[in-house]
């Protein structure tokens, strides 16, 4: 893996769409933000959202290029089209931000989230939880005589649906990672070359 | 070639390599090694301020008046927190400054050590970027990168936090490299298709107006030159924000004066009625736009800005051009010339006729009568008696600031130092010190109100120590004039806490510091007082006692449109809708 050569905002699929369509309808967008992995970079991104009053619905971050010291932040945010454009432009202003991509606009993205569910129950409820987990292709990663921990991956909607079904069956605890997302195909690859 | 040296020496070496000739600062425990290095050399001059806020504003004044980055050096903890207002001010007005702060040694960070503060945490939202340098090997390159970030693209303040053990440690000094070493490389050239679209719109425009801002000044002297060429060639009227004054000369016949909340009638009316609005390096600030949904309702709008986030942030733009003002203006001129230098002359003449009717309203008219000096008159006389000088003007914040913007004329960029975005009372005096340090032979005047001026009055010590002949021209109305004005208009004339009953004797105050003090209250003696101030070779405080209840007009009240300006006292009754009183 080599260090990346990226010039912000200058590529053919730049996220800076400067001619927005004006609308009052709030939309949810998934953004991929490639940042230098330096101390405080996540605080800069989060501080931008709190300081300017934008929403964060989900945020995940991890280093994706160890040589180039680049991290990828996947952000789900919501707002009117103007607000979304402003969020992208503001993210682009942060000095250690290399690239900002709006996966919702640039191409249908694959979105996945991982979640762990702890469900406690006996008798029929316990059997029903196991049966539903199978339907959702959730794995059992821990089991005691009165509980399971299920591991499930999928879209946020799928995980919401699973949570809804588990609730009456003795759902105790949920841990979710937030969304990771990639655009489909090779045209819009962000980051690694 | 690498040279081994201590971190403290690297700091001084890096500043020298960046062409820094002066640093404004205040020592303390966590920066002693750097001060020791400063002691042992003569290339960089250190100006000892009396409060760290003064150091940062002085660095801003230096930067604004030279176009070069300003540098401030402060200690850890309170030294760094005192720098926060100046950093925020520089961020709002896009001023390139570098603040170097000391920090407790790396092994004490996080232990609530003496004079420890999370400086990078505190200053993260008020800098363009900041760094905590924990490794001496990275210190020099971080300082070089700091200068690059502060001065590239949309300029701004940066802070570099340097723990004391890093200042003592030895490492390899990295030279300043030529060419891009950073991924941070903002786009300079504008999109040619949009520039051509704008030129086409200019050829057809019946009622065009240029609306220019601080971006023209920040882009450098070439941008102001190109702007003048473009304005003269097209014959379009031009107005400017507070930050952009001087980019186009006030004596030019296309000049409409400043626009906005306290802008000129002709400028605001032209903005409201134009059919093509060309924003060059301004950001549609709320002081400019007034009511958003009634802002320049009939115009197509072009916006030239180096910062993509400025575009469509407040006002929808039809022709967005991201790029450096000078680069874009050059391309605009070339395209316009190559297409045959066309404008709609007939309609332009009609447009100028209309503008002349607005000009004839003479919105800045006032009457100087009786034995009390009107503040407008004081500024007008100051302008008249000093405009021939090699002159720099700074201001504090409030009514006097608006009167200075209205009644003084700026012929060149970098001659006007004022706190626009943040509106920092206490800015002007230290800024005048930074300006005077950069231009020792020039006449530097700080137009002040007595309340603002008192906020950083300790800098009198700095002015006297370094024999900086800064002129403090204080319009003393014994009031927080702008606060009082808003209380009159919005709060039933209940003047809550907006005056001081214990003002100092400014003449004695000047003398206590070893400077000259002049008091004037008689309009007939005003000219003599101003000339005495100008001719005195050292720092002077002029205590100019003015009318206490004067309001600043014209004024666009909160929540109103450009064509709903108030021109004078008679129109202020019920001028502000109760629902709009939440606006500032």
TrEMBL record, chain A:
One of its GO terms (cellular component) is cytosol. GO terms for molecular function: acetolactate synthase activity; acetolactate synthase regulator activity. Pathway: Amino-acid biosynthesis; L-isoleucine biosynthesis; L-isoleucine from 2-oxobutanoate: step 1/4; Amino-acid biosynthesis; L-valine biosynthesis; L-valine from pyruvate: step 1/4. Residues 30-105 form the ACT domain. Gene3D superfamilies: 3.30.70.260, ACT-like. Chain A, domain 2. It catalyses: 2 pyruvate + H(+) = (2S)-2-acetolactate + CO2. It is an enzyme of class 2 (transferase). One of its GO terms (biological process) is isoleucine biosynthetic process. InterPro entries: Acetalactate_synth_ssu, Acetolactate_synth/TF_NikR_C, Acetolactate_synth_ssu_C, ACT-like_dom_sf, ACT_dom, AHAS_ACT, AHAS_small-like_ACT. Pfam families: ACT_AHAS_ss (PF22629), ALS_ss_C (PF10369). Its EC number is 2.2.1.6. Keywords: Amino-acid biosynthesis, Branched-chain amino acid biosynthesis, Transferase. It comes from the Bacteria. The keyword Transcription does not apply. Catalyzes the conversion of 2 pyruvate molecules into acetolactate in the first common step of the biosynthetic pathway of the branched-amino acids such as leucine, isoleucine, and valine. Dimer of large and small chains. NCBIfam families: acolac_sm, PRK11895.1. Belongs to the acetolactate synthase small subunit family. This is Acetolactate synthase small subunit. It comes from Histidinibacterium aquaticum. The gene is ilvN.
Automatic annotation (TrEMBL), chain B:
GO terms for cellular component: acetolactate synthase complex. It catalyses: 2 pyruvate + H(+) = (2S)-2-acetolactate + CO2. GO terms for biological process: isoleucine biosynthetic process; L-valine biosynthetic process. The keyword Transferase applies. Binds 1 thiamine pyrophosphate per subunit. Binds 1 Mg(2+) ion per subunit. Pfam families: TPP_enzyme_C, TPP_enzyme_M, TPP_enzyme_N. Residues 195-331 form the Thiamine pyrophosphate enzyme central domain. Keywords: Amino-acid biosynthesis, Branched-chain amino acid biosynthesis, Magnesium, Metal-binding, Thiamine pyrophosphate, Transferase. Pathway: Amino-acid biosynthesis; L-isoleucine biosynthesis; L-isoleucine from 2-oxobutanoate: step 1/4; Amino-acid biosynthesis; L-valine biosynthesis; L-valine from pyruvate: step 1/4. Residues 5-120 form the Thiamine pyrophosphate enzyme N-terminal TPP-binding domain. The keyword Metal-binding applies. SUPFAM superfamilies: DHS-like NAD/FAD-binding domain, Thiamin diphosphate-binding fold (THDP-binding). GO terms for molecular function: acetolactate synthase activity; flavin adenine dinucleotide binding; magnesium ion binding; thiamine pyrophosphate binding. It comes from the Bacteria. Its cofactor is thiamine diphosphate; Mg(2+). Its EC number is 2.2.1.6. Residues 397-544 form the Thiamine pyrophosphate enzyme TPP-binding domain. NCBIfam families: acolac_lg, PRK09107.1. Belongs to the TPP enzyme family. This is Acetolactate synthase. The lineage of its organism: Bacteria, Pseudomonadati, Pseudomonadota, Alphaproteobacteria, Rhodobacterales.
């Amino acid at each position: 893996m080599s260090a990346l050569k990226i010039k912000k905002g200058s590529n053919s699929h730049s996220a800076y769409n400067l001619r927005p369509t004006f609308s009052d309808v709030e939309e949810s967008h998934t953004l991929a933000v490639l940042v230098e992995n330096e101390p405080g970079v996540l605080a800069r991104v989060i501080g931008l959202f709190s300081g300017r009053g934008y929403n964060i619905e989900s945020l995940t971050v991890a280093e994706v290029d160890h040589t180039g010291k680049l991290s990828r932040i996947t952000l789900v945010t919501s707002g009117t089209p103007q607000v979304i454009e402003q969020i992208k432009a503001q993210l682009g202003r942060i000095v250690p931000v290399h690239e900002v991509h709006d996966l919702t606009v640039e191409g249908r993205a694959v979105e996945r989230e991982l979640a762990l569910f702890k469900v406690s129950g006996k008798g029929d409820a316990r059997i029903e939880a196991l049966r539903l987990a199978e339907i959702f292709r959730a794995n059992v990663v821990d089991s005691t005589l009165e509980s399971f921990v299920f591991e499930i991956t999928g879209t946020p909607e799928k995980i919401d649906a699973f949570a809804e079904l588990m609730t009456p069956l003795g759902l105790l605890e949920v841990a979710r990672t937030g969304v990771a997302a990639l655009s489909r195909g090779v045209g819009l690859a962000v980051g690694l070359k | 070639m690498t040279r081994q040296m201590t971190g403290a020496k690297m700091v001084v070496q890096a500043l020298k390599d960046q062409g820094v000739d002066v640093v404004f600062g205040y020592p303390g425990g966590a920066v002693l090694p750097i001060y020791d290095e400063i002691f042992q050399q003569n290339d960089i001059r250190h100006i000892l301020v009396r409060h760290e806020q003064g150091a940062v504003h002085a660095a801003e004044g230096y930067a604004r008046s030279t176009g070069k980055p300003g540098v401030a050096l402060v200690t850890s903890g309170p030294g760094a927190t005192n720098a926060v207002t100046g950093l925020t001010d520089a961020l709002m007005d896009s001023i390139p400054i570098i603040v170097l702060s000391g920090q407790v040694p790396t092994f004490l960070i996080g232990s609530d050590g003496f004079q420890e503060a999370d400086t990078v945490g505190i200053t993260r939202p008020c800098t363009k970027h900041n760094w905590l340098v924990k490794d001496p090997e990275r210190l020099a390159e971080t300082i070089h990168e700091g200068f690059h970030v502060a001065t590239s693209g949309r300029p701004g303040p940066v802070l570099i936090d340097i723990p004391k053990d890093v200042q003592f440690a030895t490492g390899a000094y990295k030279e300043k490299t030529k060419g891009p070493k950073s991924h941070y490389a903002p786009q300079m050239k504008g999109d040619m298709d949009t520039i051509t679209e704008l030129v086409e719109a200019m050829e057809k425009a019946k009622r065009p107006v240029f609306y220019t801002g601080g971006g023209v000044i920040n882009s450098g002297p070439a941008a102001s030159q190109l702007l003048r060429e473009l304005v003269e060639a097209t014959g379009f009227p031009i107005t400017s924000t507070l930050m952009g004054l001087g980019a186009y000369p006030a004596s030019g016949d296309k000049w409409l004066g400043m626009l906005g909340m306290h802008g000129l009638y002709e400028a605001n009316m032209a903005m409201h009625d134009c059919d093509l609005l060309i924003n060059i390096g301004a950001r549609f600030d709320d002081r400019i736009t007034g009511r958003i949904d009634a802002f320049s309702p009939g115009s197509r709008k072009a916006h030239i800005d180096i910062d993509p986030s400025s575009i469509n942030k407040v006002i929808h733009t039809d022709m967005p051009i991201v790029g450096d003002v000078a680069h874009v203006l050059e391309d605009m001129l070339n395209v316009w010339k190559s297409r045959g230098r066309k404008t709609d002359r007939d309609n332009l003449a009609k447009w100028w006729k209309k503008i002349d009717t607005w000009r004839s309203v003479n919105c800045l008219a006032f009457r100087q009568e009786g034995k009390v000096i009107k503040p407008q008159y004081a500024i007008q006389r100051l302008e008249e008696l000093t405009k021939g000088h090699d002159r720099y003007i700074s201001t504090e914040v409030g009514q006097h600031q608006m009167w200075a913007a209205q009644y003084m004329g700026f012929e060149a960029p970098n001659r006007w130092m004022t706190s626009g975005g943040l509106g920092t009372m206490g800015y002007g005096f230290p800024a005048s010190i930074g300006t005077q340090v950069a231009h020792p032979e020039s006449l530097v005047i700080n137009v002040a109100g007595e309340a603002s001026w008192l906020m950083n009055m300790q800098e009198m010590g700095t002015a006297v120590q370094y024999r900086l002949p800064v002129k403090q021209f204080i319009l003393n109305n014994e009031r927080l004039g702008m606060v009082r004005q808003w209380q009159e208009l919005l709060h039933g004339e209940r003047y809550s806490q907006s005056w001081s009953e214990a003002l100092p004797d400014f003449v004695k105050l000047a003398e206590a510091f070893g400077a000259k003090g002049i008091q004037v209250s008689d309009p007939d003696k005003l000219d003599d007082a101003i000339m005495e101030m100008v001719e005195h070779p050292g720092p002077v405080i002029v205590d100019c006692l003015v009318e206490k209840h004067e309001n600043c007009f014209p004024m666009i009240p909160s929540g109103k449109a450009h064509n709903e300006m108030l021109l004078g006292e008679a129109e202020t009754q019920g001028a502000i809708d109760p629902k709009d009183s939440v606006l500032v």
